[in-house]
Write a structure and sequence with these properties.
Elements (H helix, E strand, L loop, with lengths): L1 E7 L3 E8 L5 E8 L4 H7 L6 E5 L5 H9 L3 E5 L1 H7 L7 H13 L11 H17 L5
Parallel strand pairs: 1-4, 4-5
Antiparallel strand pairs: 1-2, 2-3
Length: about 140
């Protein structure tokens, strides 16, 4: 099984991956969100690959892509991840490696994450709320 650690940013992501059986590094690169790099990278991973990423906003499109390719997303609790990090850490590349190591072992998963469908419904309700002027005085 492969483990991918992803340090997610709005413009791209640093990924670091290892093959659990052999210990071989299978990925260590920056992937830009513009263009086709994300699809090219994730579509080639074996089904069942675990992708560990710190939870953040604006990544529903990414979650849907991973689901499409049969990959398993593990969303980490940002507060717990940051508490484990050392102050000397400074590179994005190191973040991806940390996520991979964490996803393999002691990864602080979020206790509960709403489904993509539930989040879509929330977005629709918030949009409706803004359109009808609910809550304004």
């Amino acid at each position: 099984m492969w483990i991918i650690g992803c340090d997610y940013h709005p413009s791209g992501q640093q990924v670091f991956g290892i093959d659990r059986e052999s210990g071989e590094v299978v990925a260590d690169r920056w992937i830009a969100h513009a263009g086709t790099e994300v699809d090219e990278f994730y579509s080639r991973l074996p089904a069942g690959t675990v992708v560990g990423v710190e939870s953040s906003g604006n990544m529903q499109w990414f979650e849907r892509r991973l689901e499409r390719y049969g990959l398993r997303l593990r969303l980490g609790d940002a507060a717990q991840i940051r508490a484990k990090e050392t102050a000397s850490r400074s590179t994005t590349a190191r973040c991806g490696a940390d996520r991979a190591a964490a996803a393999e072992g002691n990864f602080p998963d979020l206790q509960w994450v709403p489904t993509l469908e539930e989040r879509d419904q929330r977005q629709l309700l918030m949009h409706r709320h803004k359109l009808c002027g609910c809550g304004r005085r």
